[in-house]
Here is the input.
Amino acid sequence: MDRKRVVLGFFALGCMAFMLPVALSIVLSRHEGLSQAQTRLDELSTDVLRRSKITRLQIDTAIAAMERIPIAEACTDASLQRMREVVADLNYLQGLGYLRDGKLLCTTFVQLAAPLELGPPHRVTLSGIFSWSAQELPGMPGARFNINSRNGHAALISPSLVLDTLPDPSVSLVHLDRNGVLVRSRGVYRREWLAGYSGKVRTFSDDAYFVTIHPADNLDTEVIAAMPLTGVDALVRSAALRFVPVGLILGGVLAGLVAWAARHHVSLKAHLRRALRRREFFLLYQPVIELRTRRCVGAEALIRWKRPSGKPIGPAVFIPEAEKHGLIQHVTAQVMDMVAEESKALIQRHPEIHIAINFSADDLHSDQTEARLRALVAATGGASHNIVIEATERGLIAPDKAQGVLMSMRAKGFKVAIDDFGTGNSSLSYLATYDLDYLKIDKSFIDALGRDTPGSRVAFHIVEMAKTLRLQMVAEGVETQEQHDILAERGVQFAQGWLYAKPMPMEALLAFVGGRNDDAAGDPLPA
Ligand code: C2E
Ligand code: CA
Ligand code: CA
Here is the structure.
């Protein structure tokens, strides 16, 4: 997968990682709001049913007590006094009274000048109580009473008592008997709420209300509690105030984790580590030609990296990254391993040939480098002169340590070349400090040859300086015959470049060296 798609994939994953907890917190808030609304409606309904049950019991108690008073004594002062005593202990009852032929004759708390016609009862309960809802009594304008009677004895109750003691006035409460006849209500009541009700607890919403219907234990009555949807929304919002910030934080953390994983996954450093583990690097070798004889005197090992996706990455990109992240010594170790493995046949067939290996500053500062090089030489069955250590000016900048390592190796017969000469901004003082074998003239100066530019003049100065220092020269990146001729004429000994050969695998190099060097020496070969 290419980098862009991986990044896009991670971006999508990051978005999901952020959205998921946020979406979840919104869903949870809604769920929590609804469940709070449900709990509140359940509590209110249960409370109404509990109060109505107490009321019913008190009605029964009161009527049972009154039934002991002979009906002939009804409405006498003595019986009214007795009734007042009975009602004093029953807190849900407003008063008691007597009924005959559908007419209320007297009550304990309001005097009736004439019998009050009630008409047919609104309801008859399972226990044989006849009930009239919301009756107005003379002398008590505005007040309404539910009248419940059996055998002429009546209990009078304020219909609001069962409902109004409860908080939350925005909730509608409707108390109905088993036939759906209204016993008492508060707030809005829509008859269609009963449509799907079948004697079991039911919860639903319509366009404006969240509604529950609870039956009483004995199924004699039921209570509808309805909360406006605006009230539900307020509960959802207050739950959201608690849940959504947590969702946002969690989403942020998850997205951060994905970003971290993405960075890790797509970072070149992580890829380099994997490449080292999986040995994704390989070498190509570019022949170094002796200008005078045109023979191949050696080759420079150049690292290549082919990602598992097949995509090649140039050393100019990943070598600086490996240096930056402290991985270059592992890279160099693998290069040395590969040279050891691949160049045995070449060195044995051409004992004078050299393989040049590029070393970075860290390699030159490490004591392990020498041991590794010795192991390499031993593995090829060659000698130390078969290896050229290429060091850039940057690698020589901290001279103390590098000098120790380099000089020790040079003393053991390894050759040392200064690479990319003239491109670093170091002083030339290291030329006096180090004993070197080769100076590699950077391609940028070779490119300038044949043109009357400062670059070409610098090239000649480098040539003269190398001669003064008695260093042999390797011209890098020779692409034209003209460059070749100028270099040969100026006394440069060696060159590498596309004019002669591009970097190639070891097998091809073996054939190349065989073809070049086994020809009659001295014959001018075509470039
Ligand atoms: P370098 O050491 O200066 O290597 C020479 C570069 O010039 C190579 O590029 C080579 O392929 C290229 N080259 C050779 N002849 C021509 C030519 O005629 N024309 C043109 N246009 N280019 C030519 P490459 O292989 O891409 O390497 C780039 C740099 O990466 C190297 O520059 C070297 O600094 C570094 N490098 C390569 N292999 C290794 C390695 O094994 N270890 C370390 N530390 N660095 C390496
Ligand atoms: Ca080099
Ligand atoms: Ca170079």
